[in-house]
Batch of 4 targets.
Target 1
Amino acid sequence: MPRTIHEARMWACETADNVRPEDVDYLLAERLDMTPSQFQLKQDLVLTEEQEHQLKLDVKKLKRGVSPQYILGYSWFYGYKLKVVRGVLIPRFETEELVSWALDHVKNGDKVLDLGTGSGCITVAFGQEAAKKGIKDLDLYASDISDTALRTAEENFADYDLDVIVRKANILIGLEKFDKIISNPPYIKENERGYMDQNVLENEPQEALFGGKDGLAFYRRFADQVRDHLHAGGEFFLEYGFSEQDELRQLFAEKLPDFTVEFRNDLAGKPRMVYGKWNQ
């Protein structure tokens, strides 16, 4: 007998008791091409046989610990649909705030690097939103150490008809000079593994998540290299772990005394982003 959306949700959660109900809801809503509000309002809608079959396939994958975005093959970021595959970090909504901050500073003709691009989400959102603001002649660059990430990012750039120069690089070594550097780097501390979702640990690339014992390995190397890769007056925008602000403030004060540095909380009130401008 065909199930309604509500009945299908109940069945899925009973069948896979290790699966989060919100993951079932997210997958069902995406498969049905519904917004979250539409999904909640249409709980009495009866699924087709094809939709029920797809749900069964999806639940099997959820039970095996596969993240919903990898099951779908895409994720959303800043309103843009982006391909993701296992081995590529799933875009985080908090990073949208970093992009917004960088967009407040962008100028015509800026040369911009998305450092550790992953899926290319920062570059896609930044490039598309800058165009909406009337910003012209941007030189967009994206770098990553992962071949899988770079291939995925290139597909996303092509989908949005963005002209982006892609580079394989470890932090900034071998890259040019830029006006803006934007990055959501690895910053999770090693001792925080036990607090993380198993889905994340089993699916997403470790090198894009963990930043060494104290979470600051990337930032130390970045601070040592950044002057060689910024033009005079150049700026950077970085995300960081909410428990790392004091250590990061001290690190940048020691290594980047000639930079104006500003920290900012995210919308949840957690320390999340840092801006730096080279006073050169």
Note: The chain has two domains: 5-64, 88-278.
Target 2
Amino acid sequence: MRAPHRPPPRREVIPPHPQHAIRALTHDFPSEICGWGAHPEYEIHLITKSHGSFIAGDHVGTFAPGHVSIMGPNLPHDWVSDLPPGEVAVDRDAVIQFTDEWIRGCTDLIPELLEVEDVLRESSRGLVFSGQTAWRAAEVILDVTRTHGAEQVSHFFRLLTLFARSPREEREVVASEWLGRPTDSNSLNAVEAGLAYIFENLTGDIRLATAARLAYMSEPTFSKYFKSATGTTFSAMVKKLRIAHARRLLDSTDHAIAQVAAMSGYHNMANFNRQFLAEVGTTPTTYRKLESSQKPPPEVFSLGLRARS
């Protein structure tokens, strides 16, 4: 039995603790804090048990025990385990969260930490580790969740060092380049307003005029800055994310194809089938029947931009 449908991404609010620089915890799946969401903190994430699918921005992949990643600020993400009805994966997730302001402050005071800059930058598109790096990082992540005070912080910096010194072949940037941070303030405003609007209305009616109004821009101005930052038009972005969401639903639920279409914002089956085929290279019905190893890789339905190695 696949995991139940989850709502479009929500903004997760993580209250700071005045006596802790980082937040470290473990939690079960299913859990109230699980779900497709985004928050302004960096999140280092370890899966300790179960198999399933995960989404980071417009990337959909699979996970198994030992899956280690770091998600940058405001990057929507989720991990959904394939579990029988009523089963709970106890302590499935080990999570470490910290703010950009805090880590930048640490870097200002401790120049040696500059070596983690590339990891922080790449995490804005989701960074997944493999091989010996993931194996070693899993142990350190658990050390962070099991300790307190100065000992916990020392394990945390050991973890960042491990990430920073990992071989290039053991780290993969997964989401498309549009999820990075545009340097132009107008482009940044257009992307932030546009993406927030899309994510909040993924299953409903989405209009360029509304997105432009939320960015306090005219439609032509919004369209220009949005495309300059993302490399694609606003309408194409809506389609990409809706099809990515549909693929996730096909992977993680038993909903009928028509229901998946509606949950992804498509109310015309012919249009849904046509758009899915164009993006993924196969129809929704055929896609669902494929084994995981046979399914088209995420690049097929990404924005046509490949992560730089």
Note: The first helix runs from residue 100 to 109.
Target 3
Amino acid sequence: MSSIHLLLNTSISPAAYNTRRSMKVENGKFSVTSNGRRVVARATVDVRSPESSASAGKLRSAEVMEAEARVLVGTYARAPVVLSSGKGCKLYDLEGREYLDMTAGIAVNALGHGDPDWVRAVTEQASVLTHVSNLYYSIPQVELAKRLTACSFADRVFFCNSGTEANEAAIKFARKLQRFSRPDVKQPPTEFISFSNSFHGRTMGALALTSKEQYRTPFEPVMPGVTFLEYGNIQAAQELIQSGKIAAVFVEPIQGEGGIYSATKEFLQSLRSACDDTGSLLVFDEVQCGLGRTGYLWAHEAYGVFPDMMTLAKPLAGGLPIGAVLLTERVAASISYGDHGSTFAGGALVCNAANTVLDKISQPEFLASVSGKGKYFKEMLMQKLGGNPHVGEVRGMGLIIGIELDVPASPLVDACRNSGLLILTAGKGNVVRLVPPLVVSEQELGRAAEILLECLPVLDKSMSN
């Protein structure tokens, strides 16, 4: 196995790098000054396997974490683990420790790690053509768009590189449609509705649609004209849509980051009806809950309600960056050349990978297996954990499951990681979020439930502290 091995000629704790620092490159070496102290590091390739260098593994992990503290912007509070390889639903760190992955790269790795068909699609395409930009046609991009429209409500697809970019595009398309469809109206609808506990991304438009104030406040003013309503409040949504000011309503059929809350059929139907009456657009954000995660290919299929646009990203290319907006012909007809674009979007490499992912997860038997495993896992969690006084509701659909706690979930996350299980938080930090690869086995789900049960007592200790 090959890995980057950083050789430091002095040892400085990560905390030291949170102070004033500067970096320059001299003779191929990184020279970092931190509070007047000079540190030099050089990057070399370490081809030793974990087995042959287990004793050096811990040192190598420390080096990677120290280097991260020096050279990356501190936007992530990372867990103290350096992951180096993975297979299926298992991940391994530099010390060779095994982890059962119930995060799937935050609901990204639908086929797990190292799926042979996915690897073949990536390597074969990389050897032929990776990127040409959208100035030219490429076969994998057209094929993926054909498949996405064939298995959805949509007539057209716009490709981008992430979920937040997909929502940015949907914002622009909604504004353009309103202007295009009302040429004689001096001020067409430009405002948006979003909901409590929503998460739509971190770029300025998508951020404006995201409900958590701590995400928005440091960057205000963000895009104006967004009203947040209570998720599920039919009356409030209908009244605001009927005002005639709303260009589009953005809603997650199942909220992921917000705490694994599912919409009701009545709520989504009421949004559809109100938008139809006024000409507002209904946008479903299925970045996290779409593409098989619920046991349906699209989460909204469970409700029988269909949007004007749908945003996708996370699992579509199985770990490579891609985003997409699926839209009806009515919306697409308002978009002209030059209205939007992206250099990297829909490249041949990522689209070929996405075709392989879509081939697998769209199979009825695959979706049925996700649904079955989700029911099994949810029932097991309720049976094993339900008697604990800290555990409230266990909710979700398919393999997007949340366990609500009456205390912060972070001590449980840490304890599970130390016991070989990787899990996420959601909501206000009090929800355990479980979004494993869709190929996870029932045996692996059972093991995850056992580790959660074994680690639950840590919540009592956190309360006493």
Note: Residues 1-57 have pLDDT under 50 and may be disordered.
Target 4
Amino acid sequence: MENQDPLAPREEETDPHFEPVIKLTEQVDTKTLEEDEDVLFKMRAKLFRFEATSSEWKERGTGDVRLLAHKENKKVRLVMRRDKTLKVCANHAITADMRLQPNIGSDRSWVWKVAADYSESPPTSETLAIRFANAENAGEFKSQFEAAQKANAAISGGAPAVPTPTEEKKEEPEEEEKKEEKKEE
């Protein structure tokens, strides 16, 4: 008879079977609130926000930035979710007063200010920067962003914040007519 260690594995193996305490039988539908929207633009990017107290850029997330147009009212908003967790890191309407400016020293990055970003509660005013893999992607984002601004301005009946050269020319003759009317009086 051999001296066996009581903790040593025995030759007989057991396959334990555990019954779940709660059975998950029904599927739960999750709503992203994006079901009523069409994707106009989608591209992978990295998003940053400017932290005013420390005067530095903080990374907000990496994932797909999307421009979504509502199917009924046609308003366009920017939504970005982080990879893997799918947590929203940017969610705001694209307004005519937003200006995409090139980020200093980079041809593949843009900076803009948001009056109300709804990715966190309560909505906050933010300065955001987005960086793409290359300059071509950044250029495509800019053109799509500006097209969305024009579409939203047309829907709300508002004029673009910066007049186009044709609009500036239209204003000049009206001013000249007013000056001529004053002279005649």
Note: Helices lie at 135-156, 165-184.
